Amino acid sequence: MDKQTHFGFKTVDESEKADKVAEVFHSVAQKYDVMNDLMSGGLHRVWKHFTLTTSGVRAGDKVLDIAGGTGDLARGWAKRVGKSGEVWLTDINSSMLTVGRDRLLDEGMILPVSLADAEKLPFPDNYFNAVSVAFGLRNMTHKDAALKEMCRVLKPGGKLFVLEFSKVWKPLSPFYDFYSFKALPVMGKLVAGDADSYQYLAESIRMHPDQETLKQMMLDAGFGRVDYHNMTGGVVALHKGVKF
Ligand SMILES: C[S@@+](CC[C@H](N)C(=O)[O-])C[C@H]1O[C@@H](n2cnc3c(N)ncnc32)[C@H](O)[C@@H]1O
Question: Name one GO biological process term (predicted).
């Protein structure tokens, strides 16, 4: 029998998870940006801005954005590295990547784009100065394999940035639960015509490793100097690690 994993609160065969995740993102791609602003009250822009501005990424750097979707971080990295740098927008999902690519093109930004599975990255060893993954790791079947791949493609001294939902500060959790399990699916239905995908979002957040567990996973994948910064009471955490 196939090994089991989680798809939200459901237990599924490992071989089924990627297809189920793909269904979610094919379904929400066109409404993804508007839903992101609506659901987070615009806060996702602050979380991403913090990631970019505290990164230390400089002009001329090579940056890989994994699970980059509609391109928020890739756009930010491209502005920081300038013309002498190189930024790749990658995602496993063609619908999300198409929206991202078109959006960047509409803004006059031509970046290399690649349909890529984080668990099998099509890039050489020791190539990038920085790798980012925002709200993507949670959806991956083999997070340990993906983190190892991220480590492999980084140059020694290169940095990984994992921006992801995390374990919320306990006093906030009743409000957060109400919002996630009652309000989000309704918003998803009204705006994106899809309650189930937003129910999955809420469930997948609860199933994702907490701050300390993810830190340990990054250490196990070969990163050093791993640390994290909580934002909005732990709704989101930014983990950083360095490849030695
Ligand atoms: C919530 S979206 C995040 C998009 C973008 N990074 C952002 O912050 O707005 C999650 C993305 O992860 C992608 N994803 C899921 N599994 C993946 C995998 N194994 N490899 C690469 N991307 C993956 C999905 O296709 C989706 O576009």
Answer: aerobic respiration
